Every structure is written in C-alpha cells, then in structure tokens.
Amino acid sequence: MSLMELRQVTKSFGAIHALNGVDLSIAPGEAIGLMGDNGAGKSTLMKIIAGNFPPTTGEIRIDGSPVHFTRPLDARDNGIEIVYQDLALCDNLTAAANVFLGREIKSGIWPFRSLNYNAMYQKAGELFSELKSETRPRDLVKQMSGGQRQAVAIARTRLSDPKLVLMDEPTAAISVRQVAEVLNLIKRLKSTGHAVILVSHRMPDVFEVCDRVAVLRRGTKVADKRIDDTSPEEVTGLIIGAIEAA
Amino acid sequence: MTDSTNTPQDAHDKTAQTPVDHAAIDDSITSRREVSGIGAIIRTQPFWVFVAILTIGVVMTFVSDAFLTERNLFNITRNMAFFGIMALGMSAVICTAGIDLSVGSLLGLCGINLALVLQAGWSVEIGFIACISTAALVGLINGVLIAYVRLAPFVVTLGMLAMARSIAMVISNNKMVYEFGPDQELFEWIGGGSMLGVPNVVWVLTVMTLFFLWVWRYSEWGRWVIAIGGNAHAAKLSGIPVERVIVSVYMVCSICTGIAAFMFIGYTGSATNGMGATYELNVIAASVIGGANLMGGIVYALGAPIGAALVELIRNSLLLAGIPALWQQFFVGLFLILAVLLEQLRNRGGK
Ligand SMILES: Nc1ncnc2c1ncn2[C@@H]1O[C@H](COP(=O)(O)OP(=O)(O)O)[C@@H](O)[C@H]1O
Ligand SMILES: [Mg+2]
C-alpha cells in the first residue's frame, strides 16, 4: 500500500491554475524526483502535502485513508516533514533555536518550565555533524552561509522520525560537498524505510538517489517513470515540452 | 543538464574531504563570531544607554548640588519606575514589530475604574482585580483586531487611544476621585510607600524586570514572541500559534500598564480621567532607547528600566539645570530618534 497518495489534486490561486488533476503516490523507502520548469507547480504541490494550504479539489490519502490538513502541524502529526524552498528560518535566532522552533525542549516544573539550552545545543550539534555541516548550534542564522542555512532547515526534519520527507530544492544554494551530504542523507532515509520527494533542477542528483521521476509542466503531471526506464535526455525533453508526455 | 555525475568539480571535491580540509573550510566559511560574556554585553544597546546614563549623571553632579542627594535619586527612581513597568510590556509588543499607542489612555481608564471601585467601598484586592481586568480586556480587543482581523497595530491602538480616554471621561463623569474606601491607607502605601528606603514601585519594577529576564531567555512564550518578530511566516510554518501569541502579547502590554496604573493612583492619591495623556511617547521612547527594535525580533528585559531611567534622567536634569520644562518632550523625542539612528548605523556597519 502506498504511504501517501494524491488523487486528482488541483489548486487555483484566483485565476491562476497552479495544479491540474495531479495524481501521485509514494511507497515507504521510495524516493521520487519531482522536476519541472520554474512556475510548473512543484512548490505548490509540496505545500499542499505539507499542510500549508488545502487543495482546491482532490484528496490526500495517508496509509490509505483520506486526510484533511488545515495547518502544517496536521501534516507533521501525520509524519510529514518539509524543507521549504525559502527555508523558513528566523534570522534573529540561533541555529539550534531554529531547529527546535515550535517544539523546544523544556525542563523544570510549571509555571517555570524553562528552555533547555544544553539539550537543544547538543542535539542540534549532533544533527549538524550527521549532515557533515560546519554549522554551529550557537551561531545566529543571520550570519550564516547558504549551505549552513540549508543544513538548519534540513536538520529540522530530523527531529521527529517522519514517514515522508519533502525537500524543495534543498541543493540549490549549497556547495558541491554539501550536495553530496544531502544526497547521502536521502539514501540513508530510503534505507531506513522513509519516503522522500525531492524537488530539484539538478538532473544528476535525481538520477543518483531517486527511484522514480515525476515531471510537472504548467500544473499537469506529464510523466511518472522509473529512473531505470528513462534518461536525462527524455526528462529534459519532458520539462521543456519538446516531448509532450511519457 | 545531462552531464554525468563525474564532473571535474566533483572529482576535486572528493579529494577535499579529508579531516584537515574539513576544519579549514569550517574556519573560512564561518567568521568566528562567538562572543563571550562581556563582549556580548558590550554589543547591546542597553549597555550603551547605561553608559550614557552614567555620563549624564557625572555631568549633573557638577551642574547641580541637588542631583546626587538621596532625595533626588529616590525621586528619579520612583518616577522612572512607572514608565519602566509599562515599557516592559511595550517592549514585547515592539518585539513582534507592533506598537501600542493606547497605553497612556489605558492608564487613565484603569485608574478611573480602580478608583471608582475603591470609592464604592470595595477592598484593595477587588480594586486590583478590576484594574487588571480592564487592562486585560483592552489588550484582548487590541490583540484580536491585530492578529485575527489583521488590522495595522498603529491604527487599532490609535483608535483605542481615543476610545479608552473617552470611556474614562464618561464613567468618571469628568470628576476627580480621591476617596479610596476602607483600604485607602493600604492602597496609598502600596503605590506611594517604600521599603528599605526604596520606593515600592521600584521593587515592583525590579521583580517584573527579573521576571521578564527569565521570560525572554528561558520561556517558550518568550522564544515564540522573538521568533514571530524575526519571521512571522516561518514561525507559523513551524507550528507556533502566531495569532494567539500576538493576542497574548498585547494583553501582556496592557496588563503591565494596569499594574502601573494601580501603583500610580496609589502614589498620586487621586484619579482623574486625563491621567497618562501623552505617556505613550515616554513609554515607546523608553523601550526603543532601551534597545527594542521597531522592525521586530529584538528585545531586552533590562532595556525597559534602562530606557525609562534615561528618559526620567533627561527630565530631571533639565529641571535641575534650570531649563524650562517646556523643553522636556523635545529631548525625549530627540533621544528616541537618536536611538533609532544608532540602531540603523550599527546595522549598516554590520553588513
Ligand atoms: N500563494 C500564491 N498566490 C498566487 N499564485 C501563486 C502562489 N503560489 C504559487 N503561485 C503561482 O502558481 C504557479 C506555480 O508556482 P510554484 O508552485 O511556486 O512553481 P515551482 O515551484 O514549480 O517553480 C506560479 O504561476 C505561481 O506564480
Ligand atoms: Mg518552487
């Protein structure tokens, strides 16, 4: 049975039809590369799965039963974590504070339950070293490089043990070495039965870690193929429209 | 787009993954900015305002013999404490990139409600509850209109400034209240008395400042307020109940004003419906001078009393230096603008 399934999902922003009848399903341990030109609707699709906003029509199923997410917390409670394209970080807080934002570790007794800085610094440090990132938990996000910021956003998804991790262009702003670490992370997630949807413009990344590739063109899914059954040339053709559908 | 994964760049990168290089990258990418204890304090605005206070203080000891008397210091700390208490709450609002212009009027409204309840023969506890409830209700209305109806804080609280003042005039029937029922003596001692040579209201400010020190550093609520000020959208996506937190922030600000009102009426011994007019200027100035950033996301508990101290010190110094009181607001306004300018310059310098 599929872990998550989208059925005929559409999304309109006023007159703009960002998504038209998209079907997509993903199984545990599977990684899907979601590709498409700018404005194709990739981020919109990810945000619907992450509970940012509901689809205009269509449904989301988790483990076979329909769900209605009204806020990001609902998706998180259903085991879905996301790295947003814009990262969604608070610049004025430290790396550790951002990792734990909204689910801070506290200790002590009410009403003086206090933030447990040591525990959060330590855990955040572990997550960053797992990502082979030189990010330090106590540094302000304001002062960080693109790669470090990315690591903070990714580390956040590792706090719980999600079933499905959505990554919206996680490698767009980072160094080659860090890209390799993100790809390694995706492989590790797969091997432990997690599902991953990776939005990326980098063809080699998708072909290295994904099992399937889905292509969106102007809000419509024009292809959904096993990596072994396609080629970078074909996917490029699908993205730009040289190949109508496959 | 269709190249294989073995680009020259990748090959180079693989050789770079030795532990030694790892550390080198670590050093080069991140500027070493971890600042310890004293260094961190020196970077904050409250520290520099504190330096300014000491400087003015030293200058004033030469200008006026009356400055460094126990009597004068007692007065300065007592007068600043009312503004300091209100500025603690205002700082929270400013931290969310909001503003509350209604605090001066609210001080008047809370004072009149409190005075009428006491005059009617109720105990000081009931009076306190009436005072704080009035404040909480006004904060709730401000907060709901701002967080849920999404009206601009400036507009909502400007409207509330007018409405609260008007209601104070209506319910007081434009009369002064100076009879505070059976607990009059106790009530006036709480607001106007002192313990161990320190005015009670300064004790209240001290305890509240310590509490807010804890709030901003260690409470989940404080962390969430700072996060909302930094990036409300990100806070929302992280599952923080942004609207509810914003409502609570405006209630906290109003409740601080309610506490100030309770102390202030006891201190002055009378309540009029004009009380607190234009106090919003001093309270906002105290918060901003104390380091609260109007763009949101930065707050210091110590900033409120320190900012309030500077504002009161300006007033006191002008008085002792024989400069007409008409100049007071000019200097408060000037320091407010200077504080914002300083902040701007520091930001530009940091880039
Ligand atoms: N919140 C929004 N309001 C209005 N239009 C939107 C919104 N979000 C996305 N869109 C529109 O939907 C389309 C798809 O955008 P998006 O999903 O961000 O594309 P992609 O991530 O594939 O580049 C674009 O035309 C974009 O302008
Ligand atoms: Mg996008």
Topology:
The complex is a heterodimer of chains A (246) and B (351).
Chain A: E1 4-13, E2 16-26, E3 31-36, H1 42-49, E4 57-62, E5 65-67, H2 72-77, E6 80-83, H3 95-99, E7 106-107, E8 114-115, H4 117-130, H5 146-157, E9 164-168, H6 176-191, E10 195-199, H7 203-209, E11 212-217, E12 220-226, H8 232-240
Parallel strand pairs in A: 3-10, 3-11, 6-9, 9-10
Antiparallel strand pairs in A: 1-2, 1-4, 4-5, 7-8, 11-12
Chain B: H1 8-15, H2 19-29, H3 37-42, H4 45-63, H5 70-95, H6 103-119, H7 124-147, H8 153-172, H9 184-192, E1 194-195, E2 198-199, H10 200-218, H11 220-230, H12 232-237, H13 242-268, H14 279-289, H15 303-320, H16 328-350
Antiparallel strand pairs in B: 1-2
Helix pairs in contact in B: 4-15, 5-10, 5-13, 5-14, 5-15, 6-7, 6-8, 6-13, 7-8, 7-13, 9-13, 10-11, 11-13, 14-15, 14-16, 15-16
The structure holds adenosine-5'-diphosphate and magnesium ion.
The site of adenosine-5'-diphosphate has 11 residues of chain A, from strand 2 and helix 1.
Short description:
Chain A: InterPro entries: AAA+_ATPase, ABC_carbohydrate_import_ATPase, ABC_transporter-like_ATP-bd, P-loop_NTPase. Chain A has 246 residues and is of the alpha/beta class. Chain A has 8 helices and 12 strands.
Heteromolecules bound: adenosine-5'-diphosphate, magnesium ion
Helix-strand pattern of chain A, N to C?
A: EEEHEEHEHEEHHEHEHEEH
> If classified by CATH, what would the architecture of chain B be?
Orthogonal Bundle
Q: What is the subunit organization of this protein?
A: heterodimer
CATH topology of chain B: ABC transporter involved in vitamin B12 uptake, BtuC
Order of helices and strands of chain B: HHHHHHHHHEEHHHHHHH
Bin the helical content of chain B. Answer: over 70%
Strand order of the largest sheet of chain A: 6-9-10-3-11-12
CATH homologous superfamily placement of the domain at 4-92 and 162-240 in chain A: P-loop containing nucleotide triphosphate hydrolases
